[in-house]
Amino acid sequence: MVCDFGSIFFTSFAIVIFAVYCLLKRANDLFYTSKFSSKEYNIPPGDMSLPFIGNMFTFFTTFKYGDPESFISYFTSRYGQGGMYKAFMFGTPSIIVTKPQVCKKILMDDDNFELGWPKSVLNLIGKKALHGITSQEHKRLRRITTSPIKGKHALSLYLGLIEEVVKSSFEKWNAIEEKPIEFLSEMKKSTFEVIIRIMIGSEIDPQWLDMVEKVYTIYLKGFLALPINLPGFAYHRAFKARENLVKIFQSVIDERKVMNMKDESRSKGNMVDLIMAIEDDEGRRLNDEEIIDLLIVYVFAGHETTAHTAAWAIMYLEQHPEFLQKAKEEQEEIVKRRHPDSDKKLSYDEIRQMKYLTKVIDETLRCSNVTLAIYRNAKRTINMNGYTIPKGWKVLTWIRQVNLDPNNHVNSKEFNPSRWDTFSAFLPFGAGPRLCPGAELAKLEVSVFLHYFLLNYRLERLNPKTSVTYLPIPSPTDNCLARLKRISSSCQ
Ligand code: HEM
């Protein structure tokens, strides 16, 4: 009897909770969509979930603990293959877009869409970087800051430096053969060293580098944390880390000012010196705050993504011996073609000859791109692809889904570099005025990592079945616990 009463009570309680949940969901949806009920509008299907929280709880939990694809496949399987879905993300009604052509159109369209990073992210990035400024200022800053990292001349300058870091990293990882390494974490340290040396200069104290890398790790964790700025929370720690980074880069700038006063004509081959010297049409130079925010963004954007790509490319090649062999043969061929008297260093032209390796890198970017989505805000109500995007709504161009959608790629979950023999839909570096300015540099860096790996080493994973995170967040994975083994007696 007691048991019956208990189960009736709990069943009724569950029904009431479920009814309230459905009611709140419906209310949230109606609140935002009812004004678009006339025939001229067509809000995409989807799920805006509960008021205030929206889909954020599912978003964070699936990304942190589950299969990240499940968040988006919930929309695609439930609401059809239309490629546009309403949702409620980061406190704002949103449209998720997964169709490549529509994503591209949105990213290219500066008139109707503006940058839409959540406020919590913008606060962490900084007001004066490429993200918190007007589109006019953005154009100017991009002009100033992207030429030192694009094109044959600029990239050839960094090739030696990248080679040095890559070779010494592999040697270091191989030397501690008896102790496994967290391959992904180690890779991040190496790409961090590359970007810092490009930004600040080649002469870097290893202890200083280690300290700054640790600060960055804390800073990066804030980007995918719940935006709670209270002590004890990752987001708060990220803010503190940012304050530290400002102090660190300020002291670099102060040091350069003193050096410039002593010798104005000294050689200026790194980003910080170049940015400090550049003047706009009215002769104005960037102030310290602008330079620091830019440095923070470039280092932030320029190492984690590259590390994931290099580490994943190596993991994929190890999983597919036939592709590894093909890539290795290409590298051996390139080395064989060198003049016997050459200095045995990689040249920019040799990198351009690595046609198969380029396909391996593109396929890696497709399969494991760390950039999930690119955020925009609709400046005005606009109809696209048969659906309405209302003014002020957030638009999330879900490029990870574009890259993995079976409608865009045959056997989309399979790693297969040969699919790049013909063109495929692909947006790993975004598109339009905000297209990643570091794309060429990133590909160059990954090529150098792969070149030396293929010719000299093999990676032996200790837990090959354990998943490896591709997000900069703490997750229940082992970050690719592995041993690096040398396969040739003398390194090429
Ligand atoms: C595999 C490596 C990389 C990937 C997948 C990647 C991806 C992206 C994507 C998708 C965007 C567009 C964001 C948007 O439209 O809002 C972007 C922007 C950006 N990336 Fe990269 N990136 C990589 C490497 C790099 C490197 C090496 C650097 C620096 C040297 C860099 C610097 C930047 C900067 C500064 C922006 C902002 C551009 C702007 O707002 O105008 N990235 N990146």
Topology summary:
Blueprint: H1 2-33, H2 56-65, H3 69-79, E1 84-89, E2 92-97, H4 100-108, E3 113-115, H5 119-125, H6 135-146, H7 151-175, E4 181-182, H8 183-200, H9 206-221, H10 234-262, H11 271-277, H12 288-319, H13 321-336, H14 348-352, H15 355-368, E5 374-378, E6 382-384, E7 387-389, E8 394-397, H16 399-404, H17 439-456, E9 457-461, E10 481-486
Parallel strand pairs: 2-8
Antiparallel strand pairs: 1-2, 3-5, 4-10, 5-8, 6-7, 9-10
Helix pairs in contact: 7-8, 7-17, 8-12, 9-10, 10-12, 12-15, 12-17, 13-15
Bound molecules: protoporphyrin IX containing FE.
Protoporphyrin IX containing FE binds at residues 130, 142, 149, 297-298, 301-302, 305-306, 309, 369, 371, 374, 428-430, 434, 436-438, 441-442.
Order of helices and strands: HHHEEHEHHHEHHHHHHHHEEEEHHEE
Tell me the strand percentage band. Answer: 5-15%
* Count of strand segments: 10
What class would the helix/strand composition place it in?
alpha+beta
Ions, cofactors and other ligands present here are:
protoporphyrin IX containing FE
Please tally the helical runs, counting DSSP H or I stretches of 4 or more residues: 17
Overall average pLDDT:
89
Gross morphology is globular
Percentage of helical residues? 40-55%
Spatial strand arrangement across the major sheet: 1-2-8-5-3
Q: Mind explaining what this structure looks like?
A:
This protein is α+β, with helices and mostly antiparallel strands and 492 residues long. It has helices at residues 2-33, 56-65, 69-79, 100-108, 119-125, 135-146, 151-175, 183-200, 206-221, 234-262, 271-277, 288-319, 321-336, 348-352, 355-368, 399-404, 439-456, and strands at residues 84-89, 92-97, 113-115, 181-182, 374-378, 382-384, 387-389, 394-397, 457-461, 481-486. A five-stranded mixed β-sheet has the order 1-2-8-5-3. A three-stranded antiparallel β-sheet has the order 4-10-9. Strand 6 (382-384) and strand 7 form a beta hairpin. Helix 8 (183-200) packs antiparallel against helix 12 (288-319) and helix 12 (288-319) runs parallel beside helix 17. The protein binds protoporphyrin IX containing FE. Protoporphyrin IX containing FE binds at residues 130, 142, 149, 297-298, 301-302, 305-306, 309, 369, 371, 374, 428-430, 434, 436-438, 441-442.
